[in-house]
Amino acid sequence: MSHNTTEVLVGGVVLAAAIGFAVYAGQATGLSKSSDGYELNASFRSLEGVGVGTDVRLAGVKIGTVTDVELNPQTYRADTHFSVQEGIDIPDDSAIVVSSEGLLGGNFVEIMPGGSPFNFEPGDEMEDTQGAVSLITLLLKFVSGSGEES
Questions:
Q1: Domain region containing 2
Q2: What CA–CA distance (Å, rounded) separates 70 from 76?
Q3: Is residue 150 part of a domain?
Q4: pLDDT per residue over 9-31, tens digit each?
């Protein structure tokens, strides 16, 4: 009987640890829905390496996450919705760029702030976008020598 009790206790501890890990992983990856913040939209030509939960950064600091990505069948562009922390005002002439953390790092979405005195309102769309640059395409152009020569 005590052998059975020990197994039940150990099983309960393992289950509690698994639930704790799942909650932590959900919060760390941004999958949990936070109510503090506002949503903005952008449309990219290429969103390679970016998905739901990807960081949105300003000056290298995480200020939000990508909340939804969908293909627009009329424009063939990736319509992206992302949240920005409450209290961070983004000037309405800012640009949004898909950036890379390095040669082997992942991609993230970076906001390049403008100088306008007016800010985006919740639900606005950022017009000035730059999609992902494919490293493979750049390397192929370099190797094949298809660049312009002066």
A1: 1-32
A2: 10
A3: no
A4: 888 888 888 888 888 777 666 55
